[in-house]
Each structure stands twice: as C-alpha cells, then as structure tokens.
Amino acid sequence: MDSASEYVIEMLHITKEFPGIKANDDITLQLKKGEIHALLGENGAGKSTLMSVLFGLYQPEAGVIKKDGKEVKINDPNDATALHIGMVHQHFKLIDVFTVLDNIILGAEDTRFGFLRKKEARQKVKDLSERYGLKVDLDAKIEDITVGMQQRVEILKMLYRDNEVLIFDEPTAVLTPQEIQELIQIMHNLTNEGKSILFISHKLNEIMEASDRVTVLRKGKYVGTVNTAETNVDELSRMMVGRPVQLIVEKGEERLGDPVLTVRGLTVHSKLYKKEAVKNVTFTARAGEILCIAGIDGNGQTELVHALTGLEKPSGGSVTLCGRDITEASIRHRSLEGMSHIPEDRHKHGLILDYTLEQNMVLQKYFEPEFQHGGFIRFDQVRQYAERLIKQYDVRSSQGPVTVVRSMSGGNQQKAIVAREIDRDLPLIVAVQPTRGLDVGAIEYIHKQLVKQRDAGKAVLLVSLELDEVMNLSDRILVMYEGEIVGEFDPKNTTVEELGLYMAGAKRREKEAIA
Predict the structure, then answer these.
(1) Helices within 223-286 (DSSP H only)
(2) Which pTM does this prediction carry?
(3) Which domains does the chain have, with CATH numbers?
(4) What is the pLDDT of residues 274-289, one digit of tens each?
C-alpha cells in the first residue's frame, strides 16, 4: 500500500488563531484506516479546536487536510458529512421530546414523493444497532433514557449517515464504569468493521485501554505520536503536562470536627419531570472530612445541590449550616454564613462570561471594605487580588486579569472558579464536578487544594461522577440513585465495581444500615 492511502485523514501543519492566542500552532495529525487514535492534551492545548477544524466548524489560517490521500476543503459540517466524517460532541445534540429513531434520522430523512419512508429508516437503524452491538429502544423518548443510551443514539446518528471517520469528544465524561467498558467494546466493534476513530480524552487509563496510537498536544503545539502498546500512563502524563504528575492523591488520616452541614429529610421537586427529584435525603458533613455524593448524572444530585446552595427551594426537610437553619435563606445569605460553591454548570452559575477575569474573581466580595470605599469599587485592589489568584492557581488566559472570560478554555474557566471559591476560606465547600473537563495537571492541583481545605478543618461536600476521583479523594461516600441515598461506603473497604452496582440501581442498602 502506498503511504498516501495508508491514512484516511491527514491534517498537515494546521494553524488556527484566535485573538491573542494560537490555539493550534503547526499541528500534524495522521489517522490510519481502522485505528482508534487518541488525542491527548491539557485544557486549552487545542484538541477540541483541532477537531472543530476537521469537522468544518472553524477554518484554519494555514495547513491542509487530506482524505484518502487527496486534499479536501471543509467549509462547514455539511462538507464534513459529505466526506463521511461524523462527530459526537461532548454535549449531545439531541432533541429531548423526540424518539430515538426520529433523532437518528433528523436531517438525513429518506423520502419518496415528499413522504418520509420511516419503515425503511427503522430497518436500517435496527440492522446497524445489531451489527455494532448498540442496543437502544427506538421508540423511547430521549428524555426517558440514560446518558449512556443517549450516547449510543449519537453513535447511531453517525453510522446512519454512513460516516467512516468518527470523532468522539470526551465520550466517557458522563458514563458509569460499566458503560465505559461497553463503549470501549463498541469502539473496537466499529474499527473491526473498517471505521476509523479519533478519540479526545483526558483519562489516561481509558486511552491505554482503548487506543492504538496517541497524539499529544501541549499549549497548542504538537508534542509527538506514540504507539499505545509501547507507552505507559506516566510517560503520557509527562508528555502532556511537561513534568511528572502525581496520579494518586496523598492524604493523611482525617481529623473529624463538629458537624458543619446537616441535612434532614430533604425533598426537592423536579420542575422538568414533575416528580420528586430528591426524596427524603438525610446526611451530615463534618469539619475535616471530604464527604462525596456519587451517582450517575440525573439521579437528583443537581437538584440536591441547588437546594443546598439556594438556587432552588426544597419542598420539604431542613438544611443547617454551622448550627443555623438556612433552609429558606437567600444565596448571598448562605454565602456570608460560610458556604463556598463550585457549581456544576460553570457557564450558567459560575461565571459571567462577558465580564473580565478580575470582575469574576470578586463576584462575592466586591461589596466588602477591601474592595470598595463609599460605594465606589477600588479597582487597584481588585486587580491585585485577581493577579494573586491567577498566579497562585495558574489560570491561563491571553490577557491576564482583563481577559474576557468567554474567550478562555473551559479548563481555565474552571480553575478561575476554584481559585475564587477556595480563597474565600469558608467552613463549607460544595464542590460539584470540580475537575470536569480538566487535564491531569489541573486535576492534581485541585485535588491537593481540596485535601488542604479538609486538613485545615473545612467540610468538603464533593459531588462527582468520576469514580477514580471519588475513590481517591473521599473519606466517606454516599451513593445516590433516583433521588435517594442507597448506600454509604468507606473508600478503603469498597471497590469501583461495587459502587457501580449501587449507582446503576442493581443493589441498595436499607436506610437503617446507612443512618
């Protein structure tokens, strides 16, 4: 085989610039036919940008793309689809109230005389799902199926369009350990059938298990491509971050203090699904411990956190912070009483995207004497404070404190929130998915900060879907399933597999055993 046709996709010397930053600086990536090729790099390394160039969402300033050895121009995603390139985005693009089948055929409908040929479409989808081991209920509505199933729908959407090159952007972020294993198996089934996969991930263990080759990017530049069989987790993390990384969190024995947060019989109604999202939940978080609430996305964790932080009113039960009842308190009141909050949705509840970085850093402090005098903000103090946090937490942006937050990478936006919330030095930190979408270097840093807070006698309530994080960081684990706490575990005496069974609802411990 001549070298030109060995590769199904070649991205040669791609450069993509945004104001003040080169997101991709002369990057070359070559995807062989029938391989799973992982793309690895820190936040802001340029991985998603590079894939967006391939999918036609961005146009590069320099470089060429070749498909099967021939140069191609990809002006938009329709061009990518015509070249049989498909993409599963990190946030799925599905319509909740449509059925699985309607979502799959949407935009690629098979019609005759203007009428939809649904029977033929159903048969084609059914054949695809059997061939690749993608079992889904075609008549279920998207809103009623699990996130793992929704991902299968996204994969079937690509296969229905006869795509040969499949791009997966952080595909395992919202899956249970069992679903991750199933997904890796599905990816192997796809490549066995001749498909080629590009797979963006931060999770080194998954990359080792799933991929054939790995290309590493760092700060917008190409670091190298290695065969997975000839590398290891330590080498990959070093290539990615530029230094050795500690992958295991070091922490001493906990020194428990008084209760900081006490939750009794908390019930929260779901606005979306017209049912109880949180059912009679009771627990206590004490000073000097990291208490983790684990579960698959959509089992009431979001509503629980909203009720604790004041974003939603509970329909029953009580919340006590440092001995004071805050069940009905406002968000600012909770904040002043001693609660920090690293929110799940950083764009919606964590940042004001069109404000600068320094303005975002003082959102809960601008009214304190340090930052205002006679009702006027002391901008010099704000600037100094922001510069200290930016340096301390390594928040990278194109223009420092005056950068508009919208233009920063997701990981650096996250670091900014973590810096702001931890620096407030309050008795309780509610940390929801604090490392979602972060790379190993940033995860290592944030984990150390949370352990430091715990050792300083703070209570940390961690809500996480990442089981490695849960096992590594927590002192106690509560598993939440369908709005209830179904088990309490000591990370020293449990396994990821056992937690997975409780998270999927296959097992539960009775309340007496938990309380």
Answers:
(1) 233-241
(2) 0.70
(3) 3-241 (3.40.50.300), 246-338+426-515 (3.40.50.300), 347-425 (no CATH)
(4) 678 899 999 999 999 9
